[in-house]
Amino acid sequence: MKTSKHFERMLYHDSSISEYVEVRQRSPFVTDPLQSHLDTCAVDSLVGKLEHGPEINNRIAPALESFADAWTERLDRPDQVQRFVKDRIFLIRQKNSYSRLSITRSLFESLVLECNIFPQFIEFVLCFGAKHFESEIGPPHLLFRPLVVGGAGSFSDGYECAYVLRLVELNRRGDEGRPWSMRQFAVHQRYVTSSNTSTWTYIALTKRCEVRLKGYLGGVDGGGISNPFEIHLLLLDMAVANWRPYLVWLTAEINERADKVIVSSVEGDSLVPMADFNERQRLKQLEDDIVDMQLMLDSTLDSVEAMLVSYTEKFMKTRIQGQSQSDLLSQDLIIGTLHEKRGEVNLLRTKVTALRTKLAGTTELQRTQSEDFGRGI
Prior knowledge:
alpha+beta, globular, 2 domains, seven-stranded mixed β-sheet
């Protein structure tokens, strides 16, 4: 049964945020206008500007680093946003993972108004801002909405989408015990099919992702971006890339502590070191790391599957007559890559579950040893 345009507009684009969101929606933003800014540039100003193309490797990475710094405009007042609303990229910065976003609420609201960003985007913004502990709740489910055009609430074949991706990166702080840090960034895209233009908003995009984005745009030929989902896939690829080496490091850390427990179990006079508070605290920290990784992989898998469903439905609307659905799906690189990423994330989730089981056994043995030592056994 067909639904009314009024209902569709209310469901997809009118705000239905919770009371909690209404209370918290001031907290992610800085309050001092002098600390507020918004970086932006036209997509066309980047397309085709990198001679070597989008590859990221040791040979051209330094060139890309300097290329990524050259944003063409920096906005610091709400009235400036209205000049830049079509086929643009906007970057909202964050100094570090626990700081407020480098934008005032008024400047953010101007961005939302002028770029026609759906109100639910604030739910993704609330994943950022000042924090006193690592959140164990994943980001909101990926939103993919048909694009509303005109005052009558009619729908075009464009779309809006928003999501948060969480990842790990080497922090390069020189701390051998904690070389990895957890990051996250948000993406919003508003795509108009008739003009093949997009407005992109990125929140807390990591440096490596920013370099990858500009490297991709710089290598696109003069014809422009043929498929806007290519950018989503590149960012997803960056988010997934470090999980395996992080898991290798995590496994090595757990194996090292498991070996200590086994040795101390055999050598009855070696119980004291394992009863040390710092060692118990480290085991607890590793357990928290595994739980965080499980939650982050779960949210990543949710985003991959939502992208797969949204893109497949979008892609099948433009299928060539005479071709079967199975042929089209097998030939499309986006769909194939999303299936590949889904399998990769699922495999990681399986390995993390096994690693958590091993750590639980190590922790239980260590606890038993401590209790035995306390009783003088």
